[in-house]
Amino acid sequence: MALAVVTASGAVVPAAAAAVGPPPACGGIVANPSVEETARNGAPDGYVFTPAAPVPPGTPPAKVPRLVTEQAFAVDGKRAAVIQTPDGRASTASENGKFVPGGVYTLSVWTGSYAPDAGPATGLRFYDVNGAQVQENKLVADHDARDGRLVEQDFPPVTAPAKAASVKFFATTSAERLHWDCVDLQLAAYTVKKEVQNPATGAWGPFATVTAGETAHYRVTVTNEGTQELTGITVRDPWCTGSFEPFALAAGANRQLTCDHPNLTVSDNGHVNTAKVTGVHYDGGTLGDKTASATITVQPPPAIAKIGDFAWADRDGDGVQDPDEPGVAGVKVTLKDGAGGTVGTTTTDDKGKYGFDKLKDGTYQVCFAVPPGFVVTRKDAAPDDRDSDADPDGCTTPRTLGGKAREDFTVDVGLATPPPPPPAPSPTVGA
């Protein structure tokens, strides 16, 4: 006996009917696949019944619209489902299925009808977000169930259409009785989620605010949403350092991958980081590529940087801060930015100390106004916390503040008394 798939466009696709016998499987992603669970009225749990209306007057009880279960025709378990309806008026039962965008659905169901020529059918219907049907894939249940049995109908795999947002298994007839049992809906599908970590809370999500100079931490989660193993899963993220090896996922499993993007700048503000998943294979084909994104807001670093700190009298002129060498008060200190512009000025206190605070991250240069009677001592003659850092003109080499180095209290100057001038030459005798 030949079966046919009738698509939404009216095309007919051949399908095969299995021989009568024990079903290989029932279930997959559908609930109550063997219709063993029933409501008080005898209908299978999980189904929504849309009866024919109006019912013609005088319709016999055997044709009044009903959805029930019965022991006759059970393929597995003890019950099978049946719709009865008045001739020429359609009654339909449907059950929601798990929907995954881009998923490949493979349906098998055992069916039979008392009026196969009337076109009773089962199958899948896909709907958009507004509940409008966008695609129907059905098989005509053309086995005459008056022989007391059902036969298996195997549907060709179907990919969820792009506009779909939900899927339902349905059974419909417009004459006599349609019987079905052992619904098996297999799904090959996956989802991908991209997240970025909020540095303030540690939470993961699609958005985060990060400070310039810090590192953005990303996480990609790939989940096998279906009933089949997936292999060859390849994740690519061009904005992350390093790469990921392809991997496999068992049904229902997931894998999380993490990566970093260091040294963010203000120009990275609003960057949308997109990961792409490719090469996902299942037993029967390859699933479509998918992408997922996370967005960062990059804020300027807070103005909390500081720089300082000491001008001292280098009495022995060796360029090293000795314990008995005092600070020099009243030395004018000018702070310049990386472009040479003046950021601020101050003077050393009575202990020779100075400092600038509430600075933005950046490059700075400190210039000391050398007091009369002093010269700048030797530069870099000791470790940075005990040396002099200024050139003879009183200015230091520019230094960068930012990231984890927002404080520098080692910018010092040693002021030494210049050596006395050499004695004047003696007058020549007899000149």
UniProtKB/TrEMBL annotation:
Residue span(s) of domain DUF7617: 200-278
One of the Pfam families matching this protein, by short name: DUF7850
Gene Ontology CC entries for this record: extracellular region
Keyword Ligase: no
Manganese as UniProt keyword: no
Domain named SD-repeat containing protein B: residues: 305-415
Biased composition regions of type Pro residues, renumbered to the chain: 417-431
UniProt-listed InterPro entries: DUF11_rpt (IPR047589), DUF7617 (IPR055388), DUF7850 (IPR057172), Ig-like_fold (IPR013783), SDr/BOS_complex (IPR051417), Sdr_B (IPR033764)
Annotated region (Disordered), positions in chain: 378-431
Span of domain DUF7850: 26-185
Superkingdom of the organism of origin: Bacteria
Compartment(s): Secreted
Protein name: Conserved repeat domain-containing protein
Single GO BP term: carbohydrate metabolic process
Main subcellular location: secreted
Keyword set, alphabetical order: Secreted, Signal
PANTHER family: CARBOXYPEPTIDASE REGULATORY REGION-CONTAINING, COLOSSIN-A
Signal peptide: 1-18
